[in-house]
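Query structure, 396 tokens:
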């Protein structure tokens, strides 16, 4: 009996010792795991701080102003350039987007990214500092999302284009001033040339001097061409500057009747037809500038369409746009010229263009007028298949 009791006690002691040893081993193992996790956490924290420092350095070195906001329009982060330009050196983070900017275009660009989840851009946005200094920016805004699904904010990059804007305005002013100064002497030369030509033709004896008459006719023709060029340059400078377009609802049918009457004689001389359809009855535009667009496009179609050809003009509604199309049966334009067709003085066929009396500015004027209406212009054409110029004007 005593042996049984001693055996039980020994077994109990061994069992207790086993569990104590096991608990100590597990405790030591758990402690080692905790130490390893602690080291990993310290390394991850250190790496995160290094990355944050690197990101802050990069953001500070970027010359563009950067702002990220959350869904409520509160700043998440911004770089030093943004704080310097828009906060005059100090920008509280509790301000909202509408308290930082007064320009509705900036607010709208961020809202498009936040609400619709798509990129948006705005050009030549004006910002006036407290000191009264005007600066211009191109703004690009992109949505910020988690896993590409949940949008939690928007990132805006403000690219300073003040110097470019200033240089562009200087160029516009220079062209306008030079063109204005040229107009007076050209008007005088044209008047005297026409007087000499009239006096020369009155005397029958002078008609024998064909060379003299030919010279006077060439002088008169080239002076007229120069005056057209000066006029187009002044017109283009005016459109590019801060000219205000006076928009109203314009009847497309009335507009086409006016343009048709003004172009009627030219079309009759080449036995051409000019037809139009106005399925869209109104367009929101400046009537004078819209007439200029139509005359330029229709006149171009007339010039480059052979005798007996035709020109068609149509007004349609497509979605949220009013679409103007001017189609001809002319010589057509190769595809490699399409991208540059609306540049100043760009000509597909230089010799033929000069022969037709063009200044090389008509399509550029069209482009700038349409863009001032927040619209777009494009061309569809191929050699010997005619051309179609398409202008899209937004609804009011």
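Result returned for the query:
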């Amino acid at each position: 009996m005593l042996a049984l009791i001693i055996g039980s006690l020994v077994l109990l002691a061994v069992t207790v010792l086993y569990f104590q040893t096991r608990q100590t081993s597990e405790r030591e193992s758990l402690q080692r795991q905790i130490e390893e996790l602690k080291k990993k956490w310290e390394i991850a924290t250190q790496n995160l701080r290094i990355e944050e420092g690197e990101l802050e350095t990069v953001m500070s070195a970027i010359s563009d102003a950067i702002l990220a906001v959350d869904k409520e329009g509160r700043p998440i982060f911004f770089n030093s350039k943004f704080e310097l330009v828009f906060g005059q050196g100090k920008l509280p983070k509790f301000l909202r987007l509408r308290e930082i900017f007064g320009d509705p275009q900036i607010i709208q660009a961020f809202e498009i990214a936040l609400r619709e989840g798509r990129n948006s851009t705005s050009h030549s946005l004006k910002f006036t500092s407290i000191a009264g200094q005007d600066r211009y920016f191109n703004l690009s805004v992109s949505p910020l999302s988690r896993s590409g699904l949940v949008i939690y904010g928007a990132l805006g990059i403000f690219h300073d284009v003040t110097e470019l804007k200033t240089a562009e305005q200087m160029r516009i002013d220079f062209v306008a001033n030079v063109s204005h100064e040229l107009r007076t002497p050209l008007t005088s030369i044209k008047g005297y040339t026409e007087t000499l030509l009239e006096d020369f033709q009155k005397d029958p004896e002078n008609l024998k001097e064909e060379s003299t008459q030919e010279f006077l006719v060439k002088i008169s023709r080239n002076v007229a061409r120069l005056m057209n060029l000066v006029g187009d340059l002044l017109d283009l400078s005016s459109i590019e500057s801060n000219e205000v377009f006076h928009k109203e609802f314009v009847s497309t049918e009335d507009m086409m009747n006016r343009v048709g009457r003004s172009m009627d004689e030219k079309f009759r001389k080449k036995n051409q037809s000019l037809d139009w359809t106005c399925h869209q009855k109104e367009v929101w535009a400046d009537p004078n500038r819209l007439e200029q667009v139509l005359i330029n496009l229709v006149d171009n179609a007339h010039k480059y369409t052979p005798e007996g050809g035709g020109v068609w003009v149509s007004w349609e509604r497509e979605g949220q746009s009013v679409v103007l199309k001017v189609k001809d049966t002319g010589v057509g334009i190769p595809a490699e010229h399409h991208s540059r067709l609306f540049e100043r003085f760009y000509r597909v066929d230089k010799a033929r263009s000069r022969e037709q009396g063009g200044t090389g500015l008509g399509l550029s004027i069209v482009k700038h007028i349409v863009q001032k209406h927040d619209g777009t212009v494009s061309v569809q054409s191929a050699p010997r298949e005619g051309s179609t110029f398409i202008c899209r004007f937004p609804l009011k």
